[in-house]
Amino acid sequence: MPLQYNESAPAAPAEAELPPPGTPDIEIARSVQPQSILLLAQQRFGLPADSLIPFGHYKAKLNMKHFGLPDPATYGKLVLVTAVTPTPAGEGKTTTSVGLNDGLNRLGVKSSVCLREPSLGPCFGMKGGAAGGGRAQVIPMEDINLHFNGDFHAITAAHNLLASIIDNHIHWGSESGLDPRYISWRRVMDLNDRALRNMIVGLGGAAHGLPRETGFDITVASEIMAILCMADGLADLRQRLARIIIGRRRDLSPVTVGDLGAEGAMAILLRDALQPNLVQSLEHNPVFIHGGPFANIAHGCNSVMATRYALSLNDVVVTEAGFGADLGAEKFIDIKCRQSGLRPDAAVLVCTVRALKMQAGTAKSKLATPDVQAVYAGSDNLQRHIRNLRQFGLTPVVSINRFPTDSDDEIAAIQAICGDWGVRAIPAQHWAEGGAGATDLAQAVMDQMDAGEPDVQFLYPDELPLTEKIETIATRLYDAARVDFSPDAKRQLEEYEQLGFGHLPVCIAKTQYSFSANPKLRGAPSGHVLPVREVRLCAGAGFVVAVCGDIMTMPGLPRHPAALDMGLNAEGDVYGLV
Amino acid sequence: MPLQYNESAPAAPAEAELPPPGTPDIEIARSVQPQSILLLAQQRFGLPADSLIPFGHYKAKLNMKHFGLPDPATYGKLVLVTAVTPTPAGEGKTTTSVGLNDGLNRLGVKSSVCLREPSLGPCFGMKGGAAGGGRAQVIPMEDINLHFNGDFHAITAAHNLLASIIDNHIHWGSESGLDPRYISWRRVMDLNDRALRNMIVGLGGAAHGLPRETGFDITVASEIMAILCMADGLADLRQRLARIIIGRRRDLSPVTVGDLGAEGAMAILLRDALQPNLVQSLEHNPVFIHGGPFANIAHGCNSVMATRYALSLNDVVVTEAGFGADLGAEKFIDIKCRQSGLRPDAAVLVCTVRALKMQAGTAKSKLATPDVQAVYAGSDNLQRHIRNLRQFGLTPVVSINRFPTDSDDEIAAIQAICGDWGVRAIPAQHWAEGGAGATDLAQAVMDQMDAGEPDVQFLYPDELPLTEKIETIATRLYDAARVDFSPDAKRQLEEYEQLGFGHLPVCIAKTQYSFSANPKLRGAPSGHVLPVREVRLCAGAGFVVAVCGDIMTMPGLPRHPAALDMGLNAEGDVYGLV
């Protein structure tokens, strides 16, 4: 039964008169009437309506049954957007990704951007929404920030179904031999809720299970989130779920989801969530938003499925990776590319005048004052990231996300510094101007790709022992003098090798605010020691996490949560979501 | 921007050759190609596409922005489907509701049916799916049973957002004066998970909140579920949320959601969920499925919104209420009708030969053996329900949900018994035959409504004190000799009166398996004592719950959960969901 878009539906709306820069994001977002998503998919990609699963008129999932898995022979080029070390000044990686894609489309390039999905937790805590900003946004903004097509809820449900099956298994006698003292599988919730970090469940007597210590993480920290983002189709998803290690027997042998037989029901809950979501930018260019694993204890990139499908439908695909290039780009290449076979054809390194000045120690209150010397001083951070990307075989294009207070001299300083590295630095004004403000950047990226295909290299081979993999990242990217493994971490890494997981890549969980494990060490520190406090085996996601310092897997709410200032107006529209 | 269905899309598929009776429900469901839901809404109701929010091609929500609130002057007639006391033999209330609606449509009546949404918990535990059965089913069956348009996930998120705001409020010093020892708001999850019933949260030190006892209920037990089902639009939803009492101060004065200011953010999360869902039966007749509050500690009916919209779009609307008529019909009338102004125009009382025989004590293994005497003996249960419905001013049509093993004599016995009450009893075979098996029933319901409008009466007036309301239900419907209030319950009811909640209706939470609080007391017991163990004030939902006996608000999984036999086949289709 062919389902098609309505041929009589109007074409994409003419370019709207947008509110002035500085208007709240949600008001800018709401001022643009989105294009019918089925029509957009037909016009841009020639896709019939039954190849999509609409969620409302402006969001859709790609119907995997229609497509099958994409053929790499059809892939366009892949552009990785990464950034300098984040500061409270804000760098605008998502905004740049959206703006660059709009810029590419203005140049006539058939291009899409792939982003991560936002979490409800930060949305109601402090951060607000996460769908770009200014005139470089994705719409419908409220829907993307709230429940977005049910993906995170499905992950939460699958994760907690497994938890309930585990506790039920213990309640009925633990046929598998799983030792309740060694259950490592916690529960998750897509909220910030500190009271759930540490708890004792199973209280109230024998009818109510076995009392034991456990807790909740935020959903983006779930291994299932990472699995959904790494999975290459339903069969791979199911196999990865079955490989998850949920605890140990008394003899410390691992118990997997497959041992309990829960992977089938979990896959049922995740079936729809595995399908990439299609939405649009303010300029009606296609945007894929799918998956959102933490960039510390997971790999911080959108799903492999979304990247694959986007590549098969476009000539160029822009994608972003979480935090700075030390975490995001490294994991993108060493984890996501290694497992999926994908390779970036170019990299964009986002920086701002303000961020470099903060790296040099300038106070946030003085960022608006021109200070070329501070830009030079803080550029060691930018240069370290350029050097690092070179180690992966990538020469980045630096995108200077321009603020109104940036002076021409400061911009010129960044360009001069980059010039010394043989790197182009392009000011971009997509936040204020949309795609029109990013055509220079888009052209520079196209030029870079025209100049030749990069020879992308992993930082380490699969065969290197896990400890040496961690040491390689620490010394070659972070310029650490050495790694300090805790006795537990050392013992566990040895055990993982013995269990046959030594070939896995490692995923460093450390602060995003420094090349070191100390968030206060700005710029480009060297000679520091990277402390590996604990390690975790994500056998389903396919990596070993090395936790360096304190990593929070369940955030708390601030004294006055953003939630308390939100609501619906008389028309039923959301206010307070910024 | 007008969005319309595709005019060139094919008409509803011709009547399919369905698999034979006895085929698993999911296979029957999957053998029918659903009609495009936008096209169905256009053909049946004349609705343009932008009045609907599609979720895939076969499910949609009604877009409240398009409609506004329906005008009662446009309402069709409302038929309440209720049942005798449930037994393990299964009565088929949902199946009858779906079949009756298909039967009405076969008679040329413009009719829809309103049902409750299924919960994920029982689906993975024992019960399997809940979208009718046999040839009286709603499709797409898997989608309705899994995540259905995100409603339950939204309720879970809104409920737990409030919980996180409460614990955060305590963590930062409890500005409202809320006493952490008196927090009554728990958390919810849409799963069966006994280990979460009783827990201590906030462990791990001062940075992780205040340790306190709490627990999780299943999402269908959330007061927010009841609120969503009672709310009459977004403004009413917000007001009801603000009225929720989440705990007490040291002086025992109640603290509400409004005191914390959380109702706006909660309303944001619930905005889409408040809109009724439209799907279709196997025979492509419109079905509204929306909301699913527990039928014990809540009122057990689909949403007021769905009933309202369905009534404004149809000449007849069939709706069901949970459990037997003692719980379901009573709450439908005394709570839902009282609050919403809706009134039933007719009632259908579902019974089976098997159920009556079980009421008489026949063992489940002997139900297939004809036994007219047992039918007579068990009919006291049926007769009690008929008498009770008469007290509400309703003369029911009895629907005998016919099984292949039922003898003609047994059917005739039920008809004779009903005849003595002036009630028609119609055998119906929708399970085996679809709507064609329910046209006699449909005609009888139409005849009943043609005969005159019932004078529907509440069982008690608003002004009656809460204790007397409970006593009225217990003595007049359950034939209890008296009510035994625990000292706590008595004290709390007095307090509710003092706080100004004495005008609320009461919601009895008792076993569904008996007119008494003892599930083993079958038939039509009288002279028993109804023990009210505790009471709860649902100030947002608008009723006072009287808990009689043990009521489980978080189910557990059985030794071998249904989840372990589920999965996706190579085509990505669900198996094991029954």
Automatic annotation (TrEMBL), chains A, B:
Keywords: ATP-binding, Ligase, Nucleotide-binding, One-carbon metabolism. Its EC number is 6.3.4.3. InterPro entries: Formate_THF_ligase, Formate_THF_ligase_CS, P-loop_NTPase. Gene3D superfamilies: Domain 2, N(10)-formyltetrahydrofolate synthetase, Formyltetrahydrofolate synthetase, domain 3, P-loop containing nucleotide triphosphate hydrolases. ATP binds at T87, P88, A89, G90, E91, G92, K93, T94. It comes from the Bacteria. Pfam families: FTHFS. It is an enzyme of class 6 (ligase). GO terms for molecular function: formate-tetrahydrofolate ligase activity. Residues 1-24 are annotated as: Disordered. Signal peptide: none annotated. Belongs to the formate--tetrahydrofolate ligase family. This is Formate--tetrahydrofolate ligase. The gene is fhs.
